[in-house]
Fold this protein.
Amino acid sequence: MNANELSRICLALPQAFESFPFGEETSVFKTSGNGKVFAISTLTDSPLSVTLKADPEDSIALREQYAEIAPGYHMNKKHWITVDLTGSLSTRLIEELVYASYALVRPRLPRR
């Protein structure tokens, strides 16, 4: 997977947008509804990776199952994972991890 593919996956989600608060080389994906971050990727890193929000229990299981998934780089290790995008993981799994991250931060509709 390359940076353009990752960007396409993230921006396809409702209310998702990309910003560069840490400089031109670090892409941060947020929801416009509440401004919460669901993905961060340094576009110039080799190998390319993405840091995603994760349920704490899922995070532990994913790190145990896949060598390409590590605790979140520069983030809370309990709630974030960093995923190596060099090609070992399927595109489908990466998409599911991005969607799960988005689901954890997306704006919720008020109960009525």
Q: What stands out?
A: The longest strand covers residues 26-31. The longest helix spans residues 91-105. The two ends are 42 Å apart (CA to CA). The chain has a mean pLDDT of 90.
